[in-house]
Amino acid sequence: MLRQGLGTNITAIVNRLASELQNTPFYNDFLADVQTTMATQNFNKERFGAECYEWAQGTSLDTRLRNALYHLMHVQPTLLANPDTPRHVLKEPLTYIRKAQSAWERRLVKCVNSMTAELGVPLSRRRTKQEKEEFSDRWASLSTEETDLTMIRPVYAPKDFLEVLASLRNPNYDEAVEENLWGSIQLPFKVNDIKGLVELYGELAYCCKHTGLDEAVAGEYKTNLTLAEERLILGQKVVERNHGPLSRELIKSGCPTSLRGVLWHQVLGLEITDKHYKHFDELVQAVLQHDLLVDKLIMKDIQLTASNDDQYFVFEDILFQVLLCFFRDTEVLSHFEHSSASPPLAVARGNTPSPDALVAYPPCGVIPFHGFTMYAAPLSCLYEDPVPLYFTFREMYCRYWYRLHIVTSHSQGAAALALQFELLLQSCETRLWQHCCAMSIQLLPIVFKWIVRAFSGYLVPDQLFHLWDVVLAWESLEVLPVLALAIVSFRRENLMDVTSQQGAEAVLADITAISVIPLLKLALAADRGRERDP
Amino acid sequence: MTARIAYCTDMEKSVLSNNFEKRGWIQVGPDDEWNFYWAGAQTCRSLFSVDSGYRMNDNQMINHFPTHYELTRKDLLVKNIKRYRRELEREGSPLAARDATGRYIHLDFLPTTFMLPADYNLFVEEFRRNPNTTWILKPAGRSQGVGIFLVNKLAQIKKWSRDTKSSFNPALVKDTYVISRYIENPLLIGGKKFDLRMYVLVTSYRPLKAYMYKQGFCRFCTVRYDTSGQELDNMFVHLTNVSIQKHGEEYNSVHGGKWPVRTLRLYLEGTRGKARTDKLFADVTWLVVHSLRAVAPIMASDRHCFECYGYDIIIDDQLKPWMIEVNASPSMTSTTANDRIMKYKLVDDIISIVLPPDGVPNVHWNKIPANDKSGDFELLLDEELYQNSDHSATHRGKNSDRHSAPRWK
Question: Which parts of this chain are annotated as the region Disordered (chain B) (predicted)?
Answer without folding.
Answer: 390-409
